[in-house]
Amino acid sequence: MVEAGVVYIGKKPTMNYVLAVVTHFNDGSREVIVKARGRSISRAVDVAEIVRERFISDAEVRDVRISTEKVASEQGAGTNVSSIEIVLSK
């Protein structure tokens, strides 16, 4: 069985990440995890939906995990950043 792939969402155009997810599935992955933090969370949701609706119709959202991560800042005090993991499977 092929190990699950992980796609980290950043500031690039949405279709770049869609292509990465589709490539993981085409290479034989049964499961791909889309991860994002902060303002990129909405882009991660867009990527998962575009993959499901337009490219891989038999892909489904198996799990969605949300959490808060503590990120250290330059002043020494940490700030909380929301994060999401969307597990897509075929």
Summarize the structure in words.
It is a single chain. The protein has 2 helices and 4 strands. The protein is elongated and about 45 Å long. The protein is of the alpha+beta class and 90 residues long. Helices cover 31% and strands 40% of the residues. It has a 4-stranded mixed beta sheet with strand order 1-2-4-3, with helices on one face. The model has no long low-confidence stretch (mean pLDDT 92). It has a single domain (5-89), classed as Alba-like domain (Translation Initiation Factor IF3). Helix 1 packs across helix 2 (41-55).
Number of helices: 2
The CATH homologous superfamily corresponds to: Alba-like domain
Low-confidence runs of at least 5 consecutive residues: none
**Tally of structural domains:** 1
* Strand/helix succession: EHEHEE
Strand portion: 35-45%
What is this structure's SSE topology?
Blueprint: E1 5-8, H1 14-26, E2 31-37, H2 41-55, E3 60-72, E4 78-89
Parallel strand pairs: 1-2
Antiparallel strand pairs: 2-4, 3-4
Structural descriptors:
90 residues, alpha+beta, Translation Initiation Factor IF3, 2 helices, 40% strand, elongated
Quick structural gist:
This protein has 90 residues and is α+β, with helices and mostly antiparallel strands. The chain has helices at 14-26, 41-55, and strands at 5-8, 31-37, 60-72, 78-89. The protein has a four-stranded mixed sheet, with helices on one face.
